[in-house]
Design brief:
conserved putative lor/sdh protein from methanococcus maripaludis s2 fold; Elongation Factor Tu (Ef-tu), domain 3; six-stranded antiparallel β-barrel; 7 helices
Length: 407
């Protein structure tokens, strides 16, 4: 192929690439409009997020209602002064305390069925327990009770035998004394009888002492086993009574709530596995021993179960104190927890309020029962009280009043 033929295929290396150095076509009018629109929108969003202002161009700090001196402050008597008409004052709802007749529980606890009286062999009813250990303790306690009765019977019989033996020997000594006096018996026979009388007295005291020791030992064994039953939450007297149609339920009540629990108090138990309503009951006993691990006392309830629905081991939610009573209740948001104490903010006059320590009960729906600290007719802050918690904490730190622990 000749040079003339290759001439069309040669590449001029000194020439710029295609399109290089050539002017780009001008952007369209629509492209310019979209570009400036996006730019303005982006700058506006950044300005709004980073520099919020109140219309004057100056940055506005996040408001803190509890520290805004124009809206709320503390006076010289550690009362909270809330200025009327401020945004903070509009957020606070005032509630007037009134007496109500209620039947809701004073305390709610969780427990379980530990014993149930069931029909056993034949037609007799026997106690069934939720654990083999409890059953063994109950059987040992029953044996100890029987041992006490047997030891007492033996003691009475041995004492009577010893007294009769001594009485017979004393009668013989008296007869021989008279016979020696008239000369029909020798003094040797009288001395022998007197010696046997002394031996009878010693032997009688020994036998009576041994019988009394067995009787006391049986009592100690019974007392120890009864304490074991009580620590498990069972009342030995109730086990002996064998009342029909009842089940024994035990619950751990925290020591801070024990002031609200008493023997004879009514209660209701609800079982998750049963849907036929609450089971009525009553508090029968309170354990004398405090659990060091749980800081609680065991409380024994008897639940009425005429249809024999309950079984040992079932768990229950128990409400204590279901008798109808007059109570004071406030909105739950109005109760402020500071440390281990509860406070309500009560109106003293006009714009002045004082945090007062109270003893709170159980919360039901949006209301909480107040057991101590306020009276009917008092005005307290309900919704919005949490906004004033920093001031309540300040008043609490400066107040000499003792803490009122939660009940």
């Amino acid at each position: 192929m000749t040079n003339a033929n290759l001439e069309p295929f040669r590449v001029d290396k000194t020439a710029p690439p295609a399109g290089c150095g050539q002017a780009l076509p001008p952007p369209s009018r629509l492209s310019r409009v979209l570009y400036w629109a996006y730019l303005v929108l982006t700058m506006g969003i950044l300005t709004f997020l980073l520099w919020p202002d109140d219309g004057t161009g100056k940055a506005v700090p996040t408001p803190d209602p509890s520290r805004e001196s124009a809206a709320v402050r503390l006076d010289d008597e550690h009362r909270i002064v809330i200025q009327a008409g401020t945004p903070l004052q509009k957020k606070l709802q005032v509630f007037t305390i009134q007496e109500e007749r209620i039947r809701i529980p004073v305390v709610n606890v969780t427990g379980s069925v530990v014993a149930s009286l069931r029909i056993g062999a034949g037609d007799s009813r026997d106690w069934q327990f939720n654990s083999p250990e409890l059953l063994a303790t109950y059987a040992d306690w029953q044996k100890a009770v029987a041992d006490i009765a047997f030891a007492k019977t033996q003691l009475e019989a041995i004492r009577e035998l010893a007294e009769n033996r001594v009485a017979a020997q004393e009668s013989l000594v008296q007869r021989l004394t008279k016979l020696v006096a008239v000369g029909t018996e020798t003094e040797r026979e009288l001395a022998s009888a007197q010696n046997e009388l002394a031996q009878s007295r010693i032997q009688g005291r020994k036998e009576v002492h041994e019988a009394e020791t067995l009787w006391r030992q049986a009592h100690r064994t019974e007392a120890a086993l009864r304490r074991q039953l009580e620590q498990a939450g069972l009342d030995a007297t109730l086990l002996l009574a064998r009342e029909e149609d009842i089940d024994i339920v035990v619950a751990d009540v925290p020591e801070t709530l024990l002031s609200q629990v008493r023997v004879g108090q009514s209660c209701e138990a609800r079982f998750a596995c049963l849907h036929n309503g609450p089971f009525p009951g009553v508090v029968r006993a309170i354990s004398p021993v405090l659990s060091m691990e749980r800081r609680a006392l065991r409380v024994l309830f008897t639940i009425h179960d005429p249809d024999d629905k309950l079984r040992p081991g079932m768990f229950a939610d128990i409400g204590l104190g279901t008798e109808e009573r007059v109570a004071l209740r406030v909105p739950a948001p109005g109760l402020i927890h500071v440390g281990r104490s509860d406070y309500l903010i009560r109106r003293e006059d006009g714009e002045r309020w004082r945090p007062v320590p109270v003893k709170a009960g159980e919360v039901q729906a949006d209301r909480v029962e107040i057991l101590e600290g306020v009276r009917p007719g008092d005005e307290v802050i309900g919704e919005g009280a949490i906004l004033l918690k920093p001031l309540v904490d300040t008043v609490r730190a400066a107040s000499p009043e003792p803490l009122t622990e939660r009940g």
